[in-house]
Amino acid sequence: MRIAILTGAGISAESGLGTFRDKDGLWNRYDLEDVATPQGFAHNPALVHEFYNQRRADCIAARPNAAHEAIARLQNSAHEVTLITQNVDDLHERAGASQVIHMHGQLRRALCAACDHRWDAPTAMNPADACPSCGAQATRPDVVWFGEFPYQMDAIEAAVMAADLFVAIGTSAEVYPAAGLVELAKADTLEINLAPSARANAFTARRFGPATEMVPVWVDEIMG
Ligand code: APR
Question: Is the N-terminal amide bond of 177 cis, ω within 30° of 0?
């Protein structure tokens, strides 16, 4: 079976990484305009690097959970799984997943705003860092900010449209284009989330509960 999976911050919540819109979420502690927009970066690059340095350190200290591991198991089965994530952490890869499509970029990667060169980010980045390729002091985390284009949308949309099953896990469905992918699905769709997302009614099926409980059960059913 061809399965397209979209994950959000909720799948990494039980690994201790914050979500964005839950009551103690990142956007209740930081103004996203300051730390997740090109304008915010231009205004205060040191603050933005500090925000992502802390998230990168948290990510390195975190461990994949049973939900990440179950998805990796499914990906290594006979099913054809396309794994799309809005998350910038690397917990899917560290659980054994491969070809993960990071539509919002990755904390572990750096980007040069001057020449578009990309490389593995150091644990801590700062505005004085020079690009290893062009030398410009214009390095930034390789993450997609509000107002920027998500990565690999053509491949993502093609996979969702071709899927026999589209599954969204741990996302509030508040941010497009990710939240609109369910409309592209041509077959069955399933939402697995702690609580109904903003698009819950667009899915043909819904399961509510913590990802570390719900995802392994669902994967075991699919793998029969
Ligand atoms: N198990 C399953 N779902 C959970 C859990 C859990 N343990 N904990 C929280 N959730 C759910 C919440 O109910 C919520 O619906 O995960 C969702 C997290 O929603 P958000 O915090 O909005 O995260 P996400 O949907 O990934 O945000 C999308 O917004 O800010 C941007 O770029 C950022 O990629 C992010 C995008």
Answer: yes
> Amino acid letter at 15?
S
Res 18: pLDDT: 86
Q: Are strands 139-143 and 105-112 parallel, antiparallel or unpaired?
A: antiparallel
Per-residue pLDDT band for 208 (boundaries 50, 70, 90) equals: very high
Domains and CATH numbers, the chain: 1-17+64-104+150-224 (3.40.50.1220), 18-61+107-143 (3.30.1600.10)
The finding on whether 104 has its CB within 6 A of some atom of ligand 1 is yes
- Nearest residue (CA) to ligand 1, atom 23: 9
Distance 137 CA to ligand 1 centre (A): 33
* Torsion angles phi and psi, residue 101, rounded to 5: -90, 105
